[in-house]
TrEMBL record:
GO MF annotation terms: acyltransferase activity, transferring groups other than amino-acyl groups
Species this protein is from: Capsicum annuum (Capsicum pepper)
Annotated coiled-coil segments of the chain: none
Stated name of the protein: N-acetyltransferase domain-containing protein
Signal peptide boundaries: none
Taxonomy of the source species: Eukaryota, Viridiplantae, Streptophyta, Embryophyta, Tracheophyta
Taxonomy, superkingdom: Eukaryota
InterPro entries (alphabetical): Acyl_CoA_acyltransferase, GNAT_dom
Domain N-acetyltransferase: 26-178
């Protein structure tokens, strides 16, 4: 579990905005129930849920329940904020027992913010934070659908190693799918470069 001091760790990164030459700030923060309207922007979008295990949320009540029951109690679930506005989420889910050296990364972004490098920045920020906050963690892994090249590219740009394809690894909307396994180790050099 994260410590109180580490849960307060906040990182900011400036993202150059090519259109108006200003710098956008990307940061993380904890979610709360007042974020539900922003939250629906991505959890209510079929384009976002296409490669996710959850189905598109149909109502604000669904989103309220998810924030209350999943996001808030989760050990590392953050809103990705662009200039303080939540535009997506990123989580690191711990494994337990003899698997506790691993954590699994997941992320989603509202579709109108795609293609600006936001997810890549957020993944780098999370990777540098999590190995400090959870010193027992040796490996951060991400499991990506073979048909989701955008997400694979995010991990490649963030320095994750593509380890291989695992066949029929999960059910996507009931259909068995192959995935690409990516990992970043605490000892990988790029982890310190992100800081
Ligand atoms: C995947 C996702 C997080 C990417 O967010 P993003 O902020 O647009 O990502 P970035 O801008 O940092 O990088 C995206 C990269 O993928 C590339 N890309 C996007 N779609 C692509 C496609 N169909 N084929 C090949 N490359 C693609 C982009 O060109 C970019 O690479 P580049 O910088 O080399 O040009 C976002 O699309 C999303 O939320 N998708 C839905 C949820 C999801 O799939 N989550 C991941 C589950 S594992």
């Amino acid at each position: 579990m994260e410590s109180n001091s580490s849960s307060n760790l906040t990182q900011n990164l400036k993202l150059s905005n090519k259109e108006n030459d200003e710098a956008d700030i990307i940061s993380f923060r904890l979610l709360d129930l007042s974020d539900v309207d922003d939250f629906m922007e991505w959890f209510g979008d079929d384009n976002v849920s296409k490669f996710c295990s959850w189905d598109t949320f149909k109502s604000k009540e669904d989103a309220m329940s998810y924030v209350a029951d999943v996001a808030i109690p989760h050990p590392w679930f953050r809103a990705i904020c662009l200039n303080d506005k939540p535009v997506g989420t990123l989580s690191v889910s711990p494994f337990h027992g003899t698997d506790k050296c691993r954590g699994e990364l997941g992320y989603v972004l509202a579709s109108k913010y795609w293609g600006k490098g936001i997810a890549t920045r957020a993944v780098k920020m999370a990777a540098s934070a999590i190995f400090v906050e959870w010193p027992h963690l040796e490996r951060l892994e991400a499991v990506v659908d073979v048909d989701n090249p955008g997400s694979q590219r995010v991990l490649e740009k963030a320095g994750f190693k593509k380890e291989g394809v695992l066949r029929k690894y999960y059910l996507l909307k009931g259909k068995p799918k192959d995935i690409v396994m990516f990992s970043l180790l605490s000892t990988d050099q790029q982890v310190t470069y992100f800081m």
